[in-house]
From TrEMBL:
SUPFAM superfamilies, per the entry: PLP-binding barrel
Signal peptide: none
Ranges for domain Alanine racemase N-terminal: 2-228
Family per similarity comment: Belongs to the pyridoxal phosphate-binding protein YggS/PROSC family.
Keywords, comma-separated and alphabetical: Pyridoxal phosphate
Residue positions, PTM N6-(pyridoxal phosphate)lysine: 36
Name of the protein described by the UniProt record: Pyridoxal phosphate homeostasis protein
UniProt keyword annotation of Protein transport present: no
Subunit note: Monomer.
UniProt xrefs under Pfam families: Ala_racemase_N (PF01168)
Cofactor: pyridoxal 5'-phosphate
Organism of provenance: Hamiltonella defensa subsp. Acyrthosiphon pisum (strain 5AT)
Record InterPro entries: Ala_racemase_N (IPR001608), PLP-binding_barrel (IPR029066), PyrdxlP_homeostasis (IPR011078)
Any GO MF annotation of the entry: pyridoxal phosphate binding
Length: 239
């Protein structure tokens, strides 16, 4: 078994045990492999290991990979591409034309542009609203106090499917503190689900805070290091 395949298996086992530890079904939790800065060779290995959903942070890098995998087909497999980086309004067209998902919509202008620029022959673009849960001045994301208004503006837009929420909390090492922040997101998610019962995605958790995110109700974890980090000369650890 190659190393990427082994890592993916380890991450899936962690999802399984984290879910079981809090009485959730592991089927409720999707794994997004965050492939930013990783080569197409490593992504190919991940696809061969059965991982089809990938997250990219940089529009241009993402598009190059999307082109690569549409030219170099692997059987019938069509990888799914999630844009998870900060989005500037002059880049919305590329996201609308190439990606399947956008996790980082935090203002109406972005949503309006994505909606208008999504090609009519493509299915609706799946979008999440990014929340600035740690209230960091320099970070993207809408404040919780403005979330309801933003959702009601975005929800009716054509060619977009609003599926839920996403957040990247400030870096915290302590598990219990991680949990407090994620639970705040989960409450907001449940509150909004009363209005939008079709919402099914709460995108929370990365390699270092995945356990707390799953305990707090995440339905999609975004994992980069845990899948790819021991490669490309970054380090030689065995684990
Ligand atoms: C890089 C990144 C991740 C993955 O983080 P890891 O710590 O590598 O698992 C997840 N989400 C976003 C938005 C990222 O930019």
């Amino acid at each position: 078994m190659n190393a990427i395949k082994q890592n993916i298996q380890n991450v899936k086992e962690r999802i399984l045990s984290d879910a079981q530890n809090c009485g959730r079904s592991p089927k409720e939790i999707q794994l997004l492999a965050v492939s930013k800065t990783r080569s197409v060779k490593l992504i190919t290995e991940a696809i061969q290991a059965g991982q089809y959903a990938f997250g990219e942070n940089y529009v241009q890098e993402g598009i190059e990979k999307i082109h690569y995998f549409s030219k170099n087909r692997m059987g019938n497999i069509k990888p799914q591409w999630h844009f998870i980086g900060p989005l500037q309004s002059n880049k919305t067209r590329s996201v609308a034309e190439y990606f399947d998902w956008c996790h980082t919509v935090d203002r109406f202008k972005l949503a309006e542009r994505l909606s208008a620029q999504r090609p009519s022959n493509l299915p609706d673009l799946n979008v999440l609203i990014q929340v600035n849960i740690s209230k960091e001045k320099t970070k993207s994301g809408v404040m919780l106090s403005e979330l309801f208004d933003l959702a009601s503006l975005i929800s009716p837009l054509p060619k977009l499917k609003l599926c839920g929420l996403m957040a990247i909390p400030a870096l915290i090492k302590d598990y219990h503190q991680q949990l407090v922040v994620f639970e705040e997101m989960h409450s907001a998610f449940l509150e909004l689900k009363k209005e939008y019962p079709e919402w099914d995605i709460l995108s929370l958790g990365m390699t270092n805070d995945m356990t707390a995110a799953i305990h707090a109700g995440s339905t999609l974890v975004r994992i980069g290091e845990g899948i790819f980090s021991h490669f490309e000369g970054k380090m030689n650890e065995t684990s």
